[in-house]
Amino acid sequence: MMMSNSDVLERSPREMVLGLSGSPRKNGNSDILLKHIMRGVETSGIPFESYNLCKLDFHGCIGCEKCRKTKICTGLKDDMTKMYPKIIAAKGLVLVCPTHNYNVTSWMKAFIDRLYCFYNFENDHPRSWSSQLAHQGRKAVLAAICEQASIEDMGFTLDAMKKPLQALGYEVIEEIAVFKIFDKGKVEREETVLRQAVQAGEKLALSLK
């Protein structure tokens, strides 16, 4: 019998990690950084899965509001339908994204917007809300990569990932900001950054136990 998303929601998340890259560059800097974070997770023996969002066929939220009743996105049927059980099941989450015009990429933004279905809304005005994912010990690691040299030029990239996850109930335990990296694969030559990524993965794995 196939398990429904509502069935999965009733269970506690497992000690596993889901990692997502929001870069349109295949095997680019974001993918490399994600791989090293997951390498740190792997040292603790915790299972993990990682994906590049640009390889998934999905769309941004269309605001149909069906999820207010169904508690999961039913207004769209795409690859996010397959991702929801993974998101629910994973106690750890890693998001890695390059800076596009002072913000996350459109793929990462679409992914984050599709997490809207995990909110519960009341009937008061303005509507109070809670998260279906809250109070479950969920942890997250975030990383952003920027061509320029300052946090100002990175803009909202980290906050655009951090604030929605915190609202959903994740504790962001590590943030990695990488600067002056643009050429594809250049981050592979940044030993300090790669070491920081592995350590972030190790820290995430330890926090889930």
Structure, explained:
The chain has eight helices and seven strands; from the N terminus they run αβαβααβαβββααβα. The protein has 209 residues and is of the alpha/beta class. The chain has a single domain (5-10, 17-178), classed as 3-Layer(aba) Sandwich (Rossmann fold). The strands form two sheets. A five-stranded parallel sheet has the order 2-1-3-6-7, with helices on both faces. Helix 2 (29-42) links the parallel strand 1 (14-21) and strand 2 (48-52). The protein is globular, with a radius of gyration of 17 Å.
Output the keywords.
209 residues; alpha/beta; Rossmann fold; five-stranded parallel beta sheet; two-stranded antiparallel sheet; 8 helices; 7 strands; 21% strand; disordered N terminus
The share of residues in extended strands comes to 15-25%
Strand count: 7
Spans of at least 5 consecutive residues with low confidence: 1-5
Distance between the termini: 30 Å
In CATH, the homologous superfamily goes by the name Flavodoxin domain
Along the chain, the helix and strand elements come as HEHEHHEHEEEHHEH
Average pLDDT over all residues: 93
**Major sheet size, sense and barrel closure:** 5 strands, parallel
- Main sheet: strand order: 2-1-3-6-7
Number of H/I helices = 8
Fraction of residues in H or I helices: 25-40%
Tally of separate domains: 1
Kindly provide the radius of gyration, computed on alpha-carbon positions and rounded to a whole number of angstroms. Answer: 17 Å
- Which CATH architecture would you pick? 3-Layer(aba) Sandwich
Question: What general form does the structure show?
Answer: globular
Q: Structural class per helix/strand content?
A: alpha/beta
CATH topology: Rossmann fold
The top level CATH class name: Alpha Beta
